[in-house]
Amino acid sequence: MSTDLDRSTVETAYARWAPIYDAVCGPVMVKGRRAAAAAACAIGGKILEVGVGTGLSFDDYDAGTEITGIDMSAPMLAKARAKMESGRYPHVRDVLQMDAHRMSFADATFDCVVAQFVITLVANPEQVLSECHRVVKPGGRIILVNHLYSEVGVAAAVERWAAKRTRALGLRPEFPFARLAAWAQSNAEAALIERRKVAPFYTLVCFERTPSIAA
Q1: Which of 37, 40, 105, 159 could form a disulfide with 109 if both were Cys (CB 3.0 to 4.6 A apart)?
Q2: Domain count of the chain?
Q3: What is the pTM of this model?
Q4: Residue 214 domain-assigned?
């Protein structure tokens, strides 16, 4: 199992990323970002974006959605709020500084939760997944897109080598899909719906919050 990142490392890294994030990460992440947003738009309704960052994904949603975003990074959120003030994104309701490990939203608030390039970076991925599961409605979806650990071959060796060298940048290239699958298996009300590759090197994973047996 990979060593998890701590909160201070991630906050420091993304404060540094904020001024250049759109220019540097926008082109690299565009296909994964759009794939996640398209899956969310197919569901529609109230969507929570965990790790909304600078609001880079605002253009990828449509009028059939109501977006709420959360992020821990104040500098990143300042960029997102500046985009909102342009008036171009009426479908974005609010962006809030919030820790995804302990969300302040009521249970079953959202139709869909999206986390793009986030779950491999948080201090406790399983706890964040459980919070996403809590705030999504029964029948709703949790949509993740990330680079996931190759696990075997040359690519896996490169990812292990890079792991220690990229921690200070707030990255964790060796995070395995097995951790996501194990979380779902341990949760009686979570089902893996989809796992597919998204070019050039991302994976989209979708879970559904299944109705309670007692219901």
Answers
A1: 105
A2: 1
A3: 0.82
A4: no
